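Researcher: Going back to the complex we discussed earlier. I've cleaned up the inputs and rechecked each line, so this should be the final set. Can you rerun the prediction on the complete assembly and write out the structure?
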Amino acid sequence: MSGGMERRGFLKAVGAGGAGAALAGCATDKVESLIPYVTAPEEITPGVATWYASVCGECASGCGIRVRTREGRAVMIEGNPDHPLSKGGLCSRGVAALQGLYHPDRLAAPRRAVAGGFEDISWDEALDALAERLGGASRALFLTGRQGPAEGDLLNRFVEAVGGTRLTFDPLDDVALRAAVDIGFGVKALPRYDIASARQLVSFGADFLETWLSPTAFAADFAAMHGLDHGEKGRFVFVGPRLSLTGQNADEWIPARPGSEADIALAIAGELVRNGTSAGPYTELVAGRSLAAAAAAAGVAEGALAALAVRFAEGGVLALGPGLAGSHGAAAAANLAVLVLNAAAGNVGETIHIPDAPDREAASPHGDLVEALSMMRDGAYGVAVTAGANPAYALPPAAGFREAFGAVPYKVALASVMDETAAMADLVLPVAHPLESWGDSEPAPGAYAVRQPVMSPVPLFDSRATGDVLIETGRRLGHDFGAASLREHVRAAAETRLDALGVSAEDGEVRWHSLLRTGTAAAAGSAASGSPASASAPAARRALQAPNTAAGFGAPALEGAGDLALLVHPSARFGDGTHADRPWLRELPDPVSKIMWQSWVEMNPAAAERAGIRREGEIVRVSSEHGALELPVWFSPGIREDAVAIAMGGGHENHGDFASGLANDNGVNPMTLLPAAADEQSGALSLVSVRVTVSPTGAWERLASTEGTRDAQHHQDDRRIALAVAMSALGHGEEDAGEHEGGHGQLQELQEGGGFIPVPTEGRAADFPLPGSDFGEYGQEHPRWAMVVDLDKCTGCSACVTACQAENNIPWVGERETQNGREMHWLRLERYYETVDAAEAGPLDVRFLPMLCQHCNNAPCEPVCPVFAAYHTPDGLNAQVYNRCVGTRYCANNCPYKVRVFNWYRYVSENVKEPLNWQFNPDVTVRDNGVMEKCTFCVQRIREAGNRASVEGREVRDGEIRTACQSVCPSEAIVFGNVKDPESAVALAAADERSYRVLDELINTQPAVHYLKKATFHDVDEGGH
Amino acid sequence: MATADLGKRGALPNPDVETYGEVNRDILKVLSRPGKGWWILFGLALAGVGLFLGSWFVQIVRGIGVSGLNAPVGWGVYITTFVFWVGIAHSGTLISAILFLFRAPWRQSIYRASEAMTVFAVMTAGLFPLIHVGRVWHAYWLVPYPNDRFLWPNFRSPLVWDVFAVTTYFTVSAVFFYLGTIPDLAAARDQARGLRQKFYKIVSLGWRGTDREWHHFSKAYIYLAALATPLVLSVHSVVSWDFAMSIVPGWHTTIFAPYFVAGAIFSGVAMVITLVVPMRKYFGLEKYLTVKHFEAMAKLCLLTGSIVLYAYLVEYFLAWYSGEPPERGSFWNRAFGHYWWANWTMLTCNGLVPIMLWFKRVRRSIAALFVISIFINIGMWFERFVIIVTSLSHEYEPWAWGLYRPSLVEMGILVGSFAWFGFWFLLFTRLLPPVAIAEMKEVVPPPLRGKAPADEAGAAAPAGSAT
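Model: Rerun complete. Updated structure for the full complex:
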């Protein structure tokens, strides 16, 4: 890279990074001297990766991660299979933590506000200033995010010691659900759901595969529940006005009006009660609820609700939600209604567990915040400290946070980048990234996980962990928290916890290092690696109790005169907007809309037509009484005609260049349309609270979408790309399956008038396979690497896309280039609508298909390359020699799957700013201008495993090679291995009756990627030809 | 050249031209001081060449991304223009070689201009693969040259065949062109003065017009004509295989070779008309380029145009008859998709407008032919655009369908390529006799005693450029 890193700088960084990792633990000890490899650090072998287990800090879920470091630098994050919740999965945001770590906009030093800007100061000065203010007479307000147990404990003790008030701010926390559990069960805690054990699933809007509670863990459980296994799978019904990604995974959609969750849940509970079950103290309340009234309130057919009630009566149906999709004026009631339904269905204690103790860290109700804001305005607080929270952005402007915060005499922000809140502060302290800090988490009762720094802090940024700042400041104020550093504090907390869990303590050091190695520990004797339910094993089942507050179940009122309900929802990529500064995530196609970089308003085409909007991408004006936004419209069949939706996360004013629009369109912030309204019972901020009007402005913008031109209306146009098979058609043996496939299974001939008809033959075409069709044309001594993707398990979450980007040094290209269709992803998630109807309840069929290089045995790209840059390796890989590529692009033209991407510019040197390039995987070439590239099946991992095996004098074991996409997939939908080995997992999966290869029957490409058809409950007509 | 046979072969005698001297004078006059109009055109061409080189420079420095190309449309205006110019190049050889072998009598007056057009069109076309590749500094890797790493190009790739086809075609047509001009260069040498004379002296290779020289010349000309003839058919067949050998719906068709060859001749003849009409007017060559010549070219247009139209219809029929959704979809998209306008422009210009050539009055109207030829030029450029861009934009995978919008840089290079071509053609009109003097003399009544006006014939006689 030109102007990037020079040799000297590289060696310096390697030396410093390496030494730092060797001294892992002294996270705050900055290593700045150049240490040559003459005194080689013990843990580091050049060229060999070192892995650290840790806990992801990107959201409050706390998934287990394993971080791959090379020469002392974190280069890749994968899921930790030992973790009881996430079970080896990870989401895009987790992988993109690397870009938070190496973000060029991270604060380099503490800053003090001066006239007209900020000036850098030293940590000593900064901490002195902080201590002086906190030691003063005025009261301090602490506004922080949700923390892990050890850090939270430290924070609480600190706040208490300085006599302050702490509020917890996390827009993604489900405050209403916690309040409902408090009303229903008397404990302020989030319930634990055991989706994997449920037989059927109903979500009342909760996006549990995207942002709700712990999406990665839920995705794993959902795959276990919903993925086809021995001919059976659980049904998933989605109830709500808009299909989120979670909704798109449903088998059935009941497009209910926003705010009608309580009506539906209580009416179904009423049906159950009429059939003789009990809903505890709510039995009488629900018995009077009729399905007809609920259907009228929800705007759906009564029959659909009756069918749903029948399902519940069958038993084993778990109801979820409504999550943030139900955060309206009656959010707690809606949550309570769903809990009542769960109680009536007999799920409490079975698939839904109520913890015994309240949650340690819970977001404060909006009411508390309002009170604090008014106190701020009145000057009650002399100091306000924010840490890990950005309320200046994430709260509706109508809440008046900025005015109130601005009125505080001394404002301190602990932040990683200059976000909107930090920009208002008088003192900004750079916070270390979770990958550089200590911490812990409690993923499930009876389980414990520890976060450790995976490398020395990035030397460009003089940052400290929040805990260390507290300890240091406390020391200056004369408070002792029993630990000299955060590391000591966390270790002490961990030892206490390990003792409590009964983990044997013959040697404390061994136990501690064992914890660091695996990242997690479980209660002795418990099957903690299993589901959290089994780990919790509650002694006494909590039963629903009578409400201690007046719980009315009226429908929430939406404010405003518009005709469309505005649904503001968290973004699967940015959460509440915290991650909007990660270029990987900005360029990740939104799993629902497939739009990159921009904001959009999601609208039903019929509603758009009524509003006079003719074209997708038209800039429309969305206005409520609180504000108006102009943004492009995206037509979605998955939203009711009386609603529009906008995702959170756009419209940053600060928060680094990638988020704030210096380099691209930064979108809009939907919070500006909302009032600062909250549900009275729970104090949950309302995201669904206004009606808006949408009007065309006449302008138009090209949507930066990965989806092909929209002539196809999201359909496959008879191309047989993403296939499905009805459950009823499965398991009838091969003879029948052949007919359904319609491809190689049956010889066909051209008929008069076009098209093909089957020809009666003695044998089947499958009995006469083409040479090399399955295993390639090389000899038996070579493996044939192959992949199987189970479309029944794939949820379209797109974590694989980001993992692939991280592993393979794939650059991002920016908004304008994506508008021109030049995104570089080697792996894309296609989404095809088959059956989607927003007008009435019924079966839903949305297909996801991860499309990557198919590594065809008969690859169309290979013969057309004039210089052999595309060639076939003996182990069946379709290789691309970057150095040999001249850039004719013929291979891409001739690729029927369109998985080849071209370097139109010098994307890496132009876009990847220092130190983001530190993340680059040293095992993978960084490609330059003018060459073609594509998925390599992570050839660097194949070669690494092959070399290891040959050094150890053995064959590569099945499962030893895991591609990057496979290594994060929470659903375990991807299997990789040698298909020539009949015992291998991939060979067994490829032999499944659902197995097919995309387009192979048409153009005989003989791909190495097999897909397993999605299994549907309804009949599908795949119309073979 | 057996002048005596002319009458029998039904040559087109030029009634207006009476003597050899007149031929020399009229044609070599073209080479004298250029007029204002020529300078204006030449200035425009130079500016265009500047635009061409500047745009290319920007593209090399910044990356091929300055074009509008993307995934899935990896080929666009550059390859369209490449095929367009290769196609243009075909009529020259057709007229000079094939029509020569078939003794078609109307070729004499136009073949020089069309040959020149061929050479310059190949020179233009040959640049486009270089412009088009991502790393032009490595483009020589497509040439099989011995190297100590034993790296060879992939001889299965149609792009490598292309390298051979285009370079062979350029070599043969350039040699053929040059050979044919030698007697005329000698004629020019005899009239020129000063620096020009030195130039013609060198390039005419000491031609004196002896019987022995004419004997060798005729033999060489026939051999080269025979060598060039198969190239007319093969080069554009190879170019068509760039597409037909792929599996892209809309490209993968067996009809492509004859379809492309017919299209090439169609476009080439149209381009000859476009170029010759103004040249004839500007240089006052009406006597030599008569309506009969134009009518003959119009008939050739009509024939090849009909083949092209037939090929269009066959493509649609086969797409429907295949029954394959991708194939059908590709042609449905071609007719009614995003690029419908390009397709209908093509069909109008290449299919509908040439129907007028069935009328004799149109064929014999120079103005009408000029207009129609421009329509055909536009239509044939769009034909390649339709084949390349619409097919690529709508392949197998609906998710990967996409659109392509040419960028300003691409437009600069497209316009610049016409300027580059014009630059050479304008130089040609100043430096070489644009009508073959020697062959024209074949169709002029021989200077028999007693008939020729003595003054003119006497003055021209020493020119030594005719028997």
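Model: Worth noting: The radius of gyration of chain B is 23 Å.
Researcher: Good, that matches what I expected from the previous run.
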